[in-house]
Amino acid sequence: MGRTRMFDEADAARSALGVFWDHGFDGAAVPDLEQATGLSRSSIYHSFGSKRGLFDASVTTYLDQVVRPRLAPLQAQHVASDALAGYLHGLRRVMADHALPLAAHGCLLLNTATSPIGADDALRDIVRDYRRELALAIARGVEAARPELDPEASACLGTACTAHVIAAMTLVRVDAEGAVALLDNALTLLTAPIARASDDAAAHSSERGMAGRR
Predict the structure, then answer these.
(1) To pair with 86 at 20 to 30 A between CA atoms, which of 21, 36, 78, 182?
(2) CA–CA separation, 32 vs 47, rounded Å?
């Protein structure tokens, strides 16, 4: 009969998350993971298979407990008109607080994408899926906030806001002020008038016609 485990693997992954977030996968030492989780090396390897297995479990925790709760208003069946602005303001607040992990260390997944382990196919898929989930959530927020926009303009604004968010989460650990400025700009874009391509073409045509009559 197998020995009953006296710990919760979800709690261990949550505890290890802080170490991986602080130091990255490569910089996280097993003794630090032992101290954070309260588990011995053999217990970590028995439960998760390897340090990498514990990291994968921590990434799942990060997505489920850090990322998705913030995205929830943008993923609801009905997205409020101010949901995206609320998301951006909330992100701005945590990035401006240096005591919080996102401000101090940036996004765990984006950091992973630029580290040596980011070349791993499975992790690349996770980061790619995360980017798609973020983009889709922001796109729904744009549609709710700016229902007057045509599909092309709405898609462009969604892409711009997504790029600003990703850039801010990548930059924040070395330049918090720059990251906050990017989010402020995303908020400005969200409310700024956007000319449709057809309107621009009509304006240029009118200008050419007026120039020809001069």
Answers:
(1) 21
(2) 17
Q: How many CB atoms lie within 10 A of CB 127?
A: 18
Extract the tokens encoding 187. Answer: 């908020």
- Give burial (CB, 10 Å; 0-12/13-18/19+) of 86: middle
Output the pTM of the full model. 0.85
Report which residue type is found at 186. A
Predicted confidence (pLDDT) per residue in 182-199, tens digit: 999 999 999 998 765 445
Residue 171 pLDDT exceeds 90: yes
Task: Report yes or no: 23 and 2 within 8 Å, Cβ to Cβ.
Answer: no
Three-state helix/strand/coil letters over 132-149: HHHHHHHHHHHHHHCCCC
